[in-house]
Amino acid sequence: xxxxxxxxxxxxxxxxxxxxxxxxxxxxxxxxxxxxxxxxxxxxxxxxxxxxxxxxxxxxxxxxxxxxxxxxxxxxxxxxxxxxxxxxxxxxxxxxxxxxxxxxxxxxxxxxxxxxxxxxxxxxxxxxxxxxxxxxxxxxxxxxxxxxxxxxxxxxxxxxxxxxxxxxxxxxxxxxxxxxxxxxxxxxxxxxxxxxxxxxxxxxxxxxxxxxxxxxxxxxxxxxxxxxxxxxxxxxxxxxxxxxxxxxxxxxxxxxxxxxxxxxxxxxxxxxxxxxxxxxxxxxxxxxxxxxxxxxxxxxxxxxxxxxxxxxxxxxxxxxxxxxxxxxxxxxxxxxxxxxxxxxxxxxxxxxxxxxxxxxxxxxxxxxxxxxxxxxxxxxxxxxxxxxxxxxxxxxxxxx
Length: 400
Ligand SMILES: Cc1ncc(COP(=O)(O)O)c(C=O)c1O
Prior knowledge:
The chain is α/β, with parallel strands linked by helices. It is about 40% helix and about 15% strand. The protein has two domains: about 5-25 and about 295-400, Aspartate Aminotransferase, domain 1; about 40-290, Type I PLP-dependent aspartate aminotransferase-like (Major domain) (Aspartate Aminotransferase, domain 2, 3-Layer(aba) Sandwich). Helix 5 links the parallel strand 5 (about 110-115) and strand 6. The longest helix has 21 residues, at about 60-80.
């Protein structure tokens, strides 16, 4: 994996921030985009722009074909079938879609099972349904090393929650959860399970058959793809039996006396989608698979190790999540006694370093850690050892 060569594909990495060279370490929020993706968006508008599924003229047919090519590409990426890939705007919309469609299955006094390490996107949609139906949310706790309590999880799943939704990787702890095992327990108990893969799909090879969940949700923008494109993988028989999420154009078969709906996945894609974004997402997947997920994991582990070694020397620091790099994705979040994360992020930004500070849309998780906020550096394929060294050095200087 040639990081210097990869960096040449990302023009933004040659820019400055606060008159210093940009060191972009906020990849868990969104990644930068390579020229291959940006050029594909431009190419689409220069050569192929038309609305999809509507025209009988060649330009529209071409746009439709390109859009559907990405669906085919995503299905290969996930080891799924094309009919199981729904395009949405983002992970948040994918989760809302499933929550909305399963609302009728949630009865009074039921509970919906989550974990203590969820992003707000995987809490609020379920909270809204629980509140409406007089149901409750129950959460699987994590231990001091940032790992879920599997015995407790099994016990709760056996109590038959109305739905189980769990993150594959935490955006604060970096923990990678054994979702294969959780899916197995859920499926054995007849409990529907959704895996939020927003923080795992960019770093780990996702295989829908191996995970064996009912649904998997993720966002293109966190894996070199365009903003405004999300994916929902759903098992075919479930998508077939689910009601539509939104009503509108394209998702219908016939609207005369009785409305009948199109087959999935189109049933869940009402209105004009982000066609150029979906088309260009294919280039992002090509780019990542060309590098190879094993190489991505190895590279991130190396950067994590350097960050860990450096940050451990900072006085009064508390690094959140597992100490074992093999059990986490490429992010490190920490709190330093006496320093507000916003101040740290602000001071780092004066050196050109972009990191995240705050509750990372995971307030209940931060509360469990006994913190209001943390500072988070998250790495990706184009980050270098020098950048991580620089980040550690500047952080130490600020703290000192
Ligand atoms: C674990 C997790 N789930 C869901 C989301 C929501 O993603 P999006 O804003 O793309 O919908 C995020 C975003 O950071 C996340 O980290």
